[in-house]
């Protein structure tokens, strides 16, 4: 039996990416040398497109944020990408925005994004509860995430079974009482947490951490294991030790 390595990251949020986290992730990737690189969504932030965006947010535009997202894709080089709820703002506005000029602009960027995914040979799925990806060997469902609770990995398992997701910015794991020992993981984020000011009055933010997930998958059976890398202060902690 042979095992292949994978690396999963999420929630860099375009121009709000944490530069130190991005640097550490890429250094880790160079050492880990994963066969599969997985992006679990929110590659862009697109805050000017959110419902209820302030006039200041709308004035910022989305060009810089969009470019930062493309730069992250070029640096991380994912094989798989699940769009997140922030990414989905672009696709939603491309069809349903009441502002015709903005709708047309978003439609062009959405198509450009799909062309960029194709050019980079990234398998991707839209943000939808029924859509997910899996590695060629099988293993966990790869999704961005839809459940934001105190125990997000358990909540995710209830709906999707063995899975890896982002969305909640909280490293978490749920191991089921199951004969096959299946599990679900939620992954830390790669954004500058302080810059995500929309959650400054939300206690859930206290559990947010920078980090990512790495693991192995059996290329015959699809059996897999995964481990968190979590930033605490200026220290990066993993089962391998301090990075």
List keywords for this structure.
243 residues; Purple Acid Phosphatase, chain A, domain 2; eight-stranded mixed β-sheet; five-stranded mixed β-sheet; 13 strands
The succession of helices and strands, N to C, reads EHEHHEHHEEEHEEEEEEE
**Helix content, binned percent:** 25-40%
Strand content: 15-25%
Supply the number of helical segments.
Answer: 6
Taking pLDDT < 50 over at least 5 consecutive residues as the criterion, the unreliable ranges are none
> How are the strands of the largest sheet arranged?
4-3-2-1-10-11-12-13
CATH H level, superfamily name: Metallo-dependent phosphatases
Please characterize this protein's 3D structure.
The protein is α/β, with parallel strands linked by helices. It has a single domain (3-242), classed as 4-Layer Sandwich (Purple Acid Phosphatase, chain A, domain 2), CATH 3.60.21.10. 31% of the residues lie in helices and 25% in strands. The strands form 2 sheets. The chain has an 8-stranded mixed sheet with strand order 4-3-2-1-10-11-12-13, with helices on one face. The protein is globular. The chain starts with a strand and ends with a strand.
């Amino acid at each position: 039996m042979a095992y292949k390595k994978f690396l999963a990251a999420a929630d860099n949020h375009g121009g709000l990416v944490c530069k130190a986290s991005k640097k550490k992730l890429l250094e880790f990737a160079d050492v880990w040398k994963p066969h599969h690189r997985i992006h679990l969504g929110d590659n862009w932030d697109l805050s000017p497109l959110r419902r209820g965006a302030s006039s200041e947010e709308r004035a910022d535009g989305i060009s810089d944020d969009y470019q930062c997202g493309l730069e992250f894709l070029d640096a991380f080089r994912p094989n798989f990408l699940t769009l997140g709820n922030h990414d989905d703002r672009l696709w939603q506005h491309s069809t349903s925005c009441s502002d015709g000029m903005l709708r047309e602009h978003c439609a062009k960027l959405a198509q450009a994004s799909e062309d960029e995914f194709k050019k980079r040979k990234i398998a991707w799925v839209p943000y939808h509860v029924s859509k997910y990806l899996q590695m060629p060997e099988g293993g966990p469902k790869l999704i961005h995430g839809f459940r934001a609770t105190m125990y997000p990995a358990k909540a995710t398992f209830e709906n999707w079974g063995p899975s890896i997701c982002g969305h909640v910015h909280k490293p978490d794991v749920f191991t089921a009482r199951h004969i096959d020992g299946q599990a679900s993981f939620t992954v830390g984020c790669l954004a500058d947490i302080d810059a995500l000011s929309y959650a400054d009055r939300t206690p859930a933010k206290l559990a947010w951490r920078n980090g990512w997930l790495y693991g192995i998958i059996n290329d015959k059976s699809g059996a897999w294991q995964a481990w968190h890398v979590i930033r605490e202060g200026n220290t990066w902690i993993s089962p391998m030790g301090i990075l």
